[in-house]
């Protein structure tokens, strides 16, 4: 088989797969190279599934709003696969005055950005979600937020892109991007050399290493989060949940299980062997957080837990940008723990960036060269 | 461990309905042999992908009953030996455990 294509994408996370799909739809030939044995084995299959606008950085808000208005509602039909998207709102919960102050601040920012989000009291929160404990005294409420199944979304983009002729190769870790006559062109793995007119680097945290060989440094680190899932329970509510204190976040899924994410506070110093591993104290800690808000879940059985890495940018928003010094290279990384909800928008914009001069939304806030020292 | 290179565009031949496709393989999540075979044809080539796509082995028994069967079905569909397929990762806790028990501080 030929190792050339119009576009080579590095990384088959939800970002790489979505970009592959929208590019294939435009008629481009695409090869996706994935280091792991499985498609989407990074953060994309491990995240909490939040498809939120509320709580977003104002630079990211237009991306989130665009996707929720134009892409998410019909994504299952478009990809011929149920991605389990629910748009039943986001409740960010508070128990104390300090919590309510945090929530008011977030709410004001988002409302200034044009989002329909407001503060509600505990009673109104319980009218929306009757299972909430009396401890909840306030919440921010964004009725157009929601959640989807991240594993299915990632695989749905893969499956559809593959049907459209995109060539995916797993177990194919990229070592280097090489320039030919000043332009990014070759993608080198242990096994082969691939060639493309445009190269999209969407390898999460590992994008840093690959880009740095070309003299481009994206200031980001890796941070771990954990997720746990309960047995299937009867349908109760489909709002996305979060808390001002960040004790936990999550939702009930189509399957009936609740998916809850959180942390212990020791993630920065946990031991690991280079793979994202759960720590023995974290799931317990997340459970304690959940039970304060949802006492009725105390008998729900936890069946599984896992960990995933976020690629956290110095300023907490991603880099989605062509690189001037390396024509032909586009970087899409450092999604900082909230890249799933905006992935359809980002995939679409990447397909535009790779094929046209303009993009539907302005991406200048996400440039690779925006980072400046403090003085 | 080095991951094996795996081209997802390789031709598996057409999917043909099997006589025992309706047989339930994953009892917790009620997934049939036909579901698993079709998932392979849709591009799910690893046990991890199959699990995320169909929820096989994600139920109460966490795949302890069906794990081997699924491996055999996927391997046959791909035309490889079951030994070539990495098992999907086992996840803590080993047995389902109530939130109030897991959340107990000591
Ligand atoms: C626990 C957790 C919860 C989260 N919750 C949410 C949420 O609720 N809402 C939300 O919007 N976001 C959430 N996120 C963030 C979200 O998961 C990510 O931002 C998103 O999945 C990023 O997608 P990606 O494709 O950039 O990265 P990834 O999914 O990490 O994909 C990068 C891919 O590149 C591959 N790769 C790495 N190096 C190489 C190489 N050298 N060659 C080839 N391939 C390579 C990796 O194997 C990987 O498959 C969460 C993240 C975590 C970890």
Alpha-carbon Rg of chain A, integer: 21 Å
Question: What is the CATH superfamily of the largest domain in chain A?
Answer: FAD/NAD(P)-binding domain
Global mean pLDDT of chain B: 91
Total of DSSP H or I helical runs spanning 4+ residues of chain A: 9
The description of the largest β-sheet of chain B is:
2 strands, antiparallel
Query: Could you give the order of the helices and strands of chain A?
Result: EHEEHHEHEHEEHEEEEHEEEEHEEEH
CATH architecture of chain B: Orthogonal Bundle
Oligomer: heterodimer
Number of strands of chain B: 4
What is the CATH topology descriptor of the largest domain in chain A?
Answer: FAD/NAD(P)-binding domain
Q: What is the CATH topology assignment of chain B?
A: Arc Repressor Mutant, subunit A
Mean pLDDT across residues of chain A: 96
Which radius of gyration of chain B do the C-alpha atoms yield?
16 Å
Terminal residue distance of chain B: 37 Å
Q: Which hetero compounds are present in the coordinates?
A: flavin-adenine dinucleotide
Structural class of the helices, strands and pairings of chain B? alpha+beta
């Amino acid at each position: 088989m030929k190792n050339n294509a119009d576009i080579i994408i590095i990384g088959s996370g939800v970002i790489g797969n979505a970009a592959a799909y929208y590019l294939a739809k435009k008629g481009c030939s695409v090869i996706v190279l994935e280091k792991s044995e499985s498609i989407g084995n990074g953060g994309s299959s491990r995240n909490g599934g939040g498809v939120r606008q509320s709580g977003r950085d104002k630079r990211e808000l237009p991306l989130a709003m665009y996707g929720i208005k134009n892409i998410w509602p019909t994504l299952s039909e478009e990809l011929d696969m149920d991605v389990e998207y629910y748009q039943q709102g986001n409740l960010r919960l508070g128990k104390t005055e300090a919590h309510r102050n945090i929530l008011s601040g977030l709410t004001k920012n988002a409302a200034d950005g044009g989002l329909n989000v407001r503060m509600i009291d505990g009673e109104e929160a319980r009218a929306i979600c009757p299972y909430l404990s009396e401890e909840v005294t306030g919440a921010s409420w964004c009725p157009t937020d929601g959640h989807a199944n991240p594993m299915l979304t990632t695989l749905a983009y893969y499956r559809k892109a593959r049907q459209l002729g995109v060539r995916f190769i797993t177990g194919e870790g990229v070592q280097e991007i090489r320039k030919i006559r000043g332009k990014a062109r070759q993608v080198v793995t242990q096994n082969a050399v691939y060639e493309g007119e445009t190269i999209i680097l969407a390898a999460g945290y590992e994008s840093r290493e690959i880009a740095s060989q070309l003299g481009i440094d994206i200031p980001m680190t890796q941070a771990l989060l954990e997720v746990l899932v309960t047995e299937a329970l009867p349908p109760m509510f489909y709002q996305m949940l979060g808390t001002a204190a960040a004790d936990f976040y999550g939702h009930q899924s189509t399957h009936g299980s609740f998916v809850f994410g959180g942390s212990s506070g020791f993630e920065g110093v946990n031991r690991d062997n280079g793979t994202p591993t759960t720590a023995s104290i974290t799931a317990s800690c997340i459970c304690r957080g959940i039970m304060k808000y949802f006492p009725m879940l105390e008998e729900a059985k936890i069946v599984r837990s896992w960990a995933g890495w976020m690629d956290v940018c110095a300023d907490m928003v991603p880099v989605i940008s062509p690189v001037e010094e390396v024509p032909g290279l586009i970087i899409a990384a450092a999604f900082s723990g909230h890249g799933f909800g905006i992935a359809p928008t980002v995939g679409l914009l990447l397909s535009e960036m790779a094929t046209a001069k303009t993009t539907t939304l302005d991406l200048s806030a996400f440039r690779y060269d925006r980072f400046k020292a403090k003085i | 461990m080095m991951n094996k290179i795996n081209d997802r565009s390789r031709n598996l031949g057409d999917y043909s309905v099997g006589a025992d496709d309706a047989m339930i393989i994953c009892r917790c999540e009620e997934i049939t042999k036909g579901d698993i075979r079709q998932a392979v044809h849709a591009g799910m080539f690893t046990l991890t992908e199959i699990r995320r796509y169909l929820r096989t082995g994600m139920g109460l028994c966490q795949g302890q009953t069906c794990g081997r069967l699924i491996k055999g079905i996927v391997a046959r569909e791909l035309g490889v030996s079951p030994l070539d397929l990495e098992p999907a990762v086992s996840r803590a806790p080993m047995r389902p455990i109530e939130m109030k028990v897991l959340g107990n501080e000591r």
